[in-house]
């Protein structure tokens, strides 16, 4: 329905609405308030702002504080208490606030207080007012249009009947109507619940539809070769790794392109699992693209590939720091099919990258990439399989919902050579007492990681630079380097390679080292200001240790009270990445777990974790129970 059929919407308003992407009457009705104000008189004095009935006790005075800033003050009586009220730049009240006038004010009541809003008592309408916060359109006007629009239109239902029935939801039409014109906060609540269920249900339905993705040709891999490759590995696969490789190989053989999330705690050995399936595929003449978020990780994965499978395949690296000529050569080798597998950063999905026959895309730390970036890379092949790797394992139900359209496989065990990382919690002010630990670590010929939350120096936080200058003075003979996000990518790569090669003894870094970096010889980690990190992040950080027969020790240095300490102490005994991720979700919600919000679940961020998880489960069950 056209917007100009609504009385009051002329060309000018139409323009404003268009700018707001409100193009039809349906759009108008679906533009719901961003928040609500509940106007209700407060019968007792609270510590937070509220609406109070009051009586003017003294005639107002006006003071000019500076140009453009005038203060009006008068005494008022609020619930029997005399209060000095101030109003800024609202001098028009001067003639209305006579002694004895009944008013309603909004603010926090103190002996002298600033009123944020004032009404004459007769004009104050208790109730709920929606805030639309639309550019250049007042709430009252907009609401007027909405009211008119509802007269001529019924909003079609969008939720399946089973879901509406299960949650006892009113119709979409009715729910939306009362979202615009709430009679009580219950209407607002009902609308929020409806929105949440509608959002999650849509995701679920989208998921089951993408299960019916168009068929592609099954890839003719020969699983009989798999055992040969596995036998050649310098380590024994865990049972979980064996099982997961089988799943990935079945994906390749299936007649439709697979989309699989392979999740497992940091160090669980996801990369080799993914690569084992790649190897079979490459044998059939397909190409593989392996994308990782940083150059350091790209190099590391490439090295690992070369050491395990390098003799049998042609591999290369594509990153932003290559010089133009090298880059050009590699791109053309990729296009002609001379390269079997390419490891790269964001460059992989850029328009200038072409493949000869891309059959599989592997994305490491997949939450670091946007869905669009992932899809851009997928489009470079026809019916390529996708494997996403995530080191933040979460419950399956949740993973299925968050990573829409993906199947989920979880690696539960850790390789046998993993050593537990001992975790200690000590106050930051005692950091120097750990110097002897550093000495001891050096004596064992092992390396030290120091992690700091940020680079710049300020009053609150110790910077990488300040920490660096301390350790350089204290450990004169040690080879010390720093690593942080503001360094050029090449510099970071060089530093990290030097650290991996044990040309550096002590590395001071920001959390850029968090993801996936493998340093075989590191024995000690100090995390400054551990209270600034989430559980999952701390777990990832300490996961850099204990990877290769060397037992690691990680010190969480905190600033704060006993509660802060207690929160961190939990990590001493908790070692399972699943439990840790869930605890993070419980305490900090969805948004913080993955840092960046590129996975497209921003709507979840404000919702309490456990409730939402239960809701997702109920929706999944309800939808499945109907044919
Ligand atoms: P993540 O799951 O954190 O990505 P990686 O795949 O990077 O872990 O593996 C970490 C290290 O462990 C790599 O050096 C890898 O070669 C090694 N690795 C993988 N699987 C095993 C295993 N079953 N036994 C011993 N080492 C393994
Ligand atoms: Mg990894």
- What is the approximate shape? globular
How many separate structural domains? Answer: 5
Q: What is the helix tally?
A: 20
Cα-atom Rg, whole angstroms? 31 Å
By helix and strand content, what is the structural category? alpha/beta
Low-confidence stretches: 596-600
Bound molecules: adenosine-5'-diphosphate, magnesium ion
CATH-assigned homologous superfamily of the largest domain: P-loop containing nucleotide triphosphate hydrolases
User: What proportion of the residues is helical, as a percent range?
Assistant: 25-40%
Strand content: 15-25%
Q: Any idea of the CATH topology of the largest domain? A: Rossmann fold
Mean pLDDT: 88
CATH architecture of the largest domain: 3-Layer(aba) Sandwich
CATH class wording of the largest domain:
Alpha Beta
Number of DSSP E strands = 22
């Amino acid at each position: 329905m056209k917007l100009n059929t609504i009385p009051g919407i002329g060309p000018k308003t139409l323009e404003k609405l268009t700018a707001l992407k409100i193009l039809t009457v349906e759009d108008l009705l679906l533009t719901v308030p961003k928040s609500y104000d509940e106007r209700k008189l407060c019968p007792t004095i609270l510590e937070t702002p509220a609406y109070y009935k009051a009586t003017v006790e003294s005639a107002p005075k006006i003071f000019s504080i500076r140009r453009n800033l005038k203060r009006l003050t008068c005494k008022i009586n609020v619930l029997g208490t005399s209060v000095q009220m101030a109003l800024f730049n609202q001098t028009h009240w001067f003639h209305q606030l006579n002694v004895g006038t009944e008013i309603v004010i909004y603010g926090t009541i103190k002996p002298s207080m600033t009123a944020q809003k004032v009404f004459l008592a007769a004009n104050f309408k208790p109730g709920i007012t929606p805030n639309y916060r639309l550019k250049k359109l007042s709430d009252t006007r907009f609401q007027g249009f909405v009211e008119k629009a509802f007269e001529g239109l019924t909003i079609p239902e969008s939720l399946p009947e089973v879901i509406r029935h299960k949650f006892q939801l009113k119709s979409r039409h009715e729910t939306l109507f009362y979202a615009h014109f709430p009679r009580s906060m219950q209407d607002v609540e009902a609308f929020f619940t409806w929105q949440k269920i509608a959002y999650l249900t849509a995701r679920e339905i989208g998921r089951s539809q993408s299960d019916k993705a168009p068929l592609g040709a099954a890839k003719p891999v020969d699983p009989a070769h798999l055992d040969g490759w596995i036998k050649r590995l310098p380590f024994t696969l865990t049972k979980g790794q064996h099982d997961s490789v089988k799943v990935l190989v079945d994906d390749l053989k299936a007649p439709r392109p697979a989309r699989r999330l392979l999740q497992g705690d940091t160090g669980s050995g996801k990369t080799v699992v993914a690569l084992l399936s790649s190897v079979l595929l490459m044998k059939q003449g397909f190409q593989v693209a392996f994308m990782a978020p940083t150059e350091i990780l790209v190099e590391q994965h490439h090295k690992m590939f070369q050491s395990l499978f390098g003799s049998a395949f042609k591999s290369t690296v594509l990153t932003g720091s290559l010089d133009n000529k090298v880059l050009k050569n590699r791109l053309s080798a990729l296009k002609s099919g001379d390269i079997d597998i390419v490891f790269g950063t964001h460059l992989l999905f850029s328009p200038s990258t072409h493949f000869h026959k891309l059959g599989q895309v592997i994305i490491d730390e997949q939450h670091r990439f946007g869905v669009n970036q992932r899809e851009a890379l997928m489009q470079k092949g026809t019916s390529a399989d996708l494997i996403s790797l995530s080191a933040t394992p979460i419950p399956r139900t949740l993973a299925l919902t968050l990573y829409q359209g993906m199947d989920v496989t979880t690696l539960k065990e850790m390789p046998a050579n993993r050593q537990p990382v001992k975790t200690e919690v000590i106050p930051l002010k005692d950091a120097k007492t750990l110097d002897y630990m550093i000495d001891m670590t050096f004596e064992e010929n092992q390396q030290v990681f120091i992690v700091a939350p940020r680079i710049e120096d300020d009053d609150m936080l110790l910077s990488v630079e300040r920490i660096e200058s301390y350790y350089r003075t204290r450990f004169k003979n040690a080879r010390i380097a720093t690593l942080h996000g503001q360094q050029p990518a090449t510099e970071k790569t060089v530093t990290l390679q030097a650290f991996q090669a044990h040309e550096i003894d002590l590395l001071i870094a920001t959390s850029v080292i968090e993801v996936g970096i493998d340093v075989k010889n590191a024995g000690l980690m100090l995390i400054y200001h551990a209270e600034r990190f989430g559980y999952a992040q701390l777990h990832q950080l300490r996961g850099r240790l204990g990877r290769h027969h060397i037992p690691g020790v990680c010190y969480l240095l905190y600033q704060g009270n006993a509660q802060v300490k207690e929160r961190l102490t939990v990590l001493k005994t908790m070692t399972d990445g699943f439990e840790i991720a869930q605890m993070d979700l419980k305490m900090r919600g969805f948004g913080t777990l993955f840092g960046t919000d590129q996975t497209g679940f921003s709507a979840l961020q404000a919702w309490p974790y456990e409730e939402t998880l239960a809701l997702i489960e109920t929706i999944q069950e309800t939808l499945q129970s109907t044919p």
